[in-house]
Design brief:
Strand content: 15-25%
Mean pLDDT: 95
Helix content: 25-40%
Distance between the termini: 17 Å
Largest sheet: 6 strands, mixed
Number of strands: 12
Shape: globular
Radius of gyration: 18 Å
Low-confidence stretches: none
Number of helices: 9
Order of helices and strands: EHEHEHEHEEHEHEHEEEHEH
């Protein structure tokens, strides 16, 4: 790909940054379609995010931004306009810069999770789900599960209050859905979703659940993309569980992103 003065720039923002896959997936799409654009990974800490955002917003050849952990709530708050998907979650993961400089935000995580990891949501129907992680991605997944016909959802987070707030929010919007906040135990669960960063650093990260309690009837989905085989998924495979890999969540969003960016 030739980068020139006419090339539209896109950024991938995260903290940490080494695990992100979006640039390596979307840049070949740009090249294959003859789109004069490139995506570059950029590492901002949460403390520097607002300052960095203003600098990026002023970049006149900026096409847009894709945002990962832990910046999705800040991206939502700083955007000039948000659509319904982002508003429902209070978090954004894809932002387009319009020619007038306005930053327009959406959230594709929930749809990407259902399409890329759960067969459009059909694999969640009738299941009792334990969702570990109530951050930006966890919120999107929780709302997606509520819409997909899951039997019940229990949300667990290192911050119990955050889990309780998310459960109450879903219950308010979907009153017929059984949603609770609680511990990350696997009692009465036949689907487990890890929406935490646990697994990005396999040598040091704690496991999101006690893997000794995994059973073959539990479907285990982990949104971590790198490494592909997280310790959780390795343990689940060893115990005969169905497993779903995090790459599918991104891969199913790429076409949506390219379209949202105007191509």
């Amino acid at each position: 790909m030739m980068i020139s003065g006419t090339t539209k720039i896109f950024y991938m923002l995260a903290h940490p940054i080494a695990h992100v896959r979006t640039p390596e997936v979307i840049n070949p799409v740009f090249a294959a379609r003859g789109i004069d654009a490139v995506m570059v990974p950029v590492h901002f800490s949460p403390e520097d995010f607002a300052t960095g955002w203003e600098a990026l917003k002023g970049t006149r050849n900026l096409g847009g931004i894709v945002v990962s952990v832990p910046h999705k709530e800040q991206a939502y708050a700083l955007s000039d306009e948000v659509d319904r998907a982002a508003e429902e979650l209070g978090a954004a993961n894809v932002i387009r810069r319009d020619p007038d400089g306005r930053m327009i935000a959406t959230n594709m995580d929930g749809l990407g999770f259902l399409r890329g990891m759960l067969n459009g949501g059909r694999d969640a129907e009738g299941r009792d789900v334990l969702l570990v992680g109530a951050g930006g991605a966890g919120k999107a997944i929780a709302f997606g599960l509520a819409k997909s016909g899951s039997k019940s959802i229990r949300i667990s987070d290192v911050d119990p209050e955050r889990a309780e707030v998310l459960a109450a929010d879903i219950k308010n919007r979907y009153p017929d859905q059984t949603v609770t906040a609680g511990s990350p135990n696997l009692d009465g669960i036949d689907m487990l979703v890890n929406a935490t960063p646990c697994g990005l650093h396999p040598e040091t990260d704690p496991l999101p659940v006690d893997i000794a309690d995994l059973r073959p009837d539990i479907l285990v989905a982990d949104i971590i993309m790198k490494p592909r085989e997280t310790p959780l998924l390795q343990a689940a495979t060893a115990r005969g569980c169905q497993v779903r890999y995090g790459a599918g969540m991104l891969d199913s969003q790429i076409e949506l992103m390219v379209s949202f960016f105007g191509y």
